[in-house]
Each structure stands twice: as C-alpha cells, then as structure tokens.
Amino acid sequence: ASLQESMKKHRMPAALITSNASRFYLTQFKSSAGFLVIFQDAAYFLTDFRYYEAAKKQVSGAKVLLADKKM
Questions:
Q1: H or E element: which one contains 65?
Q2: pTM
Q3: Are 33 and 53 in contact (CB under 8 A)?
Q4: Residue 38 phi, psi dihedral angles, 5° rounding
Q5: What does the buried/exposed string (b/e) look like for 26-43 if buried means 16 or more CB atoms within 10 Å of the residue's CB?
Q6: What is the pLDDT of residues 2-53, one digit of tens each?
Q7: Which H/E stretch holds residue 16?
Q8: Which pLDDT score is estimated for 2?
Q9: How many Å apart are CA 58 and CA 8, to the nearest integer?
C-alpha cells in the first residue's frame, strides 16, 4: 500500500518528511535541502533554488515548489 493509502486507512491527515534519507526513499530525488509534505490526496516537495529545476524534472508523485525566505 502507498503511504497515502495508509494515511487514509489510519485517518492521518498529513505527514511532514524532513529527513534526507526519507525524502529520497519517497521521491527518488537526492538533495540536502527541502522537505516533503504529504496529504491524503496531494503531496508537495519544497526545495530551494539549487535543486528546484532538477526536482521539477525528476520528482514524481509530488508537486515541486520553490521554497523561499518567506515560507
């Protein structure tokens, strides 16, 4: 079962993934910065300008967003 399916089953509304290893496991994208926010029906990978373009091309299963100082 996918993480989102498990979240629905256990009524878990969201997960915040900050660990480099866990982000890589879930996205197959290696980076030293960023985080992954997963909801039952959507997922977002937030990263800084160094990884943004590469992440947009390589990350699947999550919308890639550019994190800035205002976030």
A1: strand 63-66
A2: 0.86
A3: no
A4: -120, 125
A5: bbebebeebebbbebeeb
A6: 888 898 999 999 999 999 999 999 999 999 989 999 999 999 999 999 999 9
A7: strand 14-17
A8: 85
A9: 26
CA distance 31 to 5: 26
Length of the chain in terms of residues written: 71
Residue with tokens 């989102």: 4
Nearest to 42 by CA among 22, 21, 15: 15
If we measure between CA atoms, which residue out of 12, 13, 58, 19 comes closest to residue 36? 19
Read off the pLDDT of residues 51-64 as tens digits, 9 standing for 90 and up.
999 999 999 889 99
Cα distances (angstroms) measured from residue 2 to each of 12, 42, 70, 71: 13, 13, 32, 28
Q: What is the pLDDT of residue 58?
A: 95
Residue 62 carries which side chain, given as an amino acid letter?
A
